[in-house]
Amino acid sequence: MKIFAARSVLAGVFAVAVAMAAAPASAQSLLRDVEIEEWLDDYSRPIFRAAGIPADEIQILIIGDQSFNAFAGGLVMGVNTGLITISETPNEIEGVIAHEAGHIALAHTTRSDEAYAAASRPMILSLVLAAGAIAAGATDAGLGLLALGQTVGVANVLKYSRGQESSADQAALTYLDAVGSSGAGLIQSFKRLSGSQIVHSQRVNPYLQSHPLALARVNALEERAASLPNFGARNTPEEIARLKMIQAKILGFMQPAQFTLRQYPPADLSDPARYARAVAYYRATDMDKAVKEIDGLIDLHPDNPYFYELKGQMLFEFGRVAESVAPHRRSVELKPGKALLRINLGRALAASEEPDDLDAAVKELKAALLVEPDNSFGWFELARAYGALGKEGLADLAMAESRYNVGAKPEAAQFARRALQKLPRGTPEWRQATDIVVASIGVEAANPGRGGERDPAPERPQEPAPDKGEVPDPQFN
Questions:
Q1: Tell me, what's the pLDDT at 192?
Q2: Coil, strand or helix: which one is 13?
Q3: Measuring CA to CA, which residue among 444, 445, 437, 438 is closest to residue 418?
Q4: Which has the least CB within 10 A, 108, 245, 309, 467?
Q5: Which of 208, 238, 268 is the C-terminal boundary of a domain?
Q6: At 201, phi and psi to the nearest 5?
Q7: The dihedral formed by the CA atoms of 320, 304, 343 and 83, expressed in degrees to the nearest 10
Q8: Which residues contact 55 (CB under 8 A, 6 or more apart)?
């Protein structure tokens, strides 16, 4: 798991934790985690398809905040960790996702053009940029893309009319029934919120602020839901068990270790308890107990990639780099299509600085970037690996990509110009660096007219005919 404080942007490899123990449990943060992302995808993507919205284009942000909250705007959806940990069944979370999908499908965020332009549109733009950004955890990032207060603030901008709320409710029921799920979970979530109005310490639950509830609305929702064919559908024990594991992992990372150990005492030998304790012991720097807990889970479930991922993370972060390679490699073997797992492995291999390991690191990182080409952290680690191999031109090019994908275009152009001085002219890599310069500063700025002060970007070459039998490196096509 990787957690970013409020000043950070989305990204990184959730499985490479940076100073999490120092972050207050109540702080809001943006997260990446393969296991949680996969779990959310399994429930959300079918709903998005049922809603007729581009399922593969919706960016789902995981926000490290233990309040019950979710929001959607443009093609971005935010899900608080609290929505996951407070819900009792996957169907409750599925219902909220379906409701937010209704707002997207019905284009509710395009209402009130003046207000939306003034407040929401810049936030949504920042969200889109942030969703493609992978910060390397550096304190001097200075990206200026997104403060988390702006991210969470979208929920306060996206306040819908009573009619829009009701239409999103009804749309959610349609989508849920279309995928064979019940609307009961959505109703349960709304009842829980409307029954308490969740007011603690003069703070109103943010979901209630952006989604005001009324008893009549809940009653109308319940009446139609009960008439649908799949209202009686319920989550299986296996689905409930999977949610419990996700919840244990989140709580292990998001709350103080002592809370987790009281909630999941050593006498509890269930899988969720072992998972939560492994994380808690790791965060409490008790590595012997942490490794013992995760090894116990691996013995019980040798084909679970996320247990190996966590073990690799713990070992790497505590300086046991050589030991971390094997569990990271096993996680990739079990889930080869997950970019973040490959980045973890590439990072561990590169940290050894052995020539053979560095070559393997480059291979893993390039494979990851084929899956997530806008993953800035992956490009950053690739730059480090190339630098250690003495391939300075490729290192500068990778850094240019890294900076470009977090929105730092002036720096991207600077690294791309450096790369152009070292790369053979006309190669795919040279053309890639040229593209970054042009995209970073614009065609006009790159090629100023008479009296311009900027150094011109290199002219874009004609596509050279490849040598017979030449196979270009796909990474740079």
A1: 76
A2: coil
A3: 437
A4: 467
A5: 238
A6: 50, 40
A7: -110
A8: 44, 45, 46, 48, 49
Domain span at residue 450? 392-477
Strand partners, 29: 64
Report if pTM > 0.90.
no
Beta strands per DSSP E along 46-149:
59-64, 70-73, 76-80
270 lies in some domain = no
H or E segment to which residue 4 belongs: strand 2-4
Query: For the ranges 10-19, 54-63, 276-285, 349-358, which has the lowest average pLDDT?
Result: 10-19
Q: What is the mean pLDDT of residues 312-341?
A: 97
In whole angstroms, what is the distance from residue 407 CA to residue 388 CA? 26
Q: What is the pLDDT of residue 143?
A: 36
CB of 32 within 8 A of CB of 13? yes
Q: Is residue 376 part of a domain?
A: no
* pLDDT surpasses 90 at 123: no
Give 373's DSSP letter: T
Is the model more confident about 157 or about 18? 157
Beta bridge partners of 30: 4, 63
Q: Which of 15, 188, 173, 153 is nearest to 73 (CA)?
A: 153
Q: How confident is the model at residue 442 (pLDDT cuts 50, 70, 90)?
A: low
Residue 107: which pLDDT band, with cuts at 50, 70 and 90?
confident
Contact 62, 40 (CB under 8 A): yes
Tokens at 59, concatenated: 């960016």
Task: Give every CB contact of residue 277 below 8 A, 6+ residues apart in sequence.
Answer: 252, 260, 261, 264, 266, 289, 293
318 located within any domain: no
Helix axes 148-157, 121-131, angle to 10 degrees: 130
Does 276 fall in a domain?
no
DSSP conformational letter for 21: G
- How many domains would you assign to the chain? 2
Determine the Cα–Cα distance for residues 81 and 249; give it in Å rounded to an integer: 11
In this prediction, residues 316-335 reach a mean pLDDT of 97
Joined tokens for residue 45: 């993507």
More confident residue, 442 or 458: 442
User: Which residues face 80 on adjacent strands?
Assistant: 63
Distance CA 394, CA 427 (A): 12
Compare 208 and 403 and report the one with higher pLDDT: 403
Last residue of a domain, which of 187, 210, 238? Answer: 238
In this predicted model, what pLDDT tens digit does every residue of 452-473 receive, in sequence order? 333 444 443 333 333 333 322 3
Q: Looking at this protein, which amino acid is placed at residue 37? A: E
Q: Is residue 350 a contact partner of residue 361, using CB atoms and an 8 Å limit?
A: yes
Q: Are 383 and 343 in contact (CB under 8 A)?
A: no
User: 253-284 burial by CB neighbour count: b if 16+ within 10 A, else e?
Assistant: bbbebeebbebbeeeeeebbbbbbbbbbbbbb
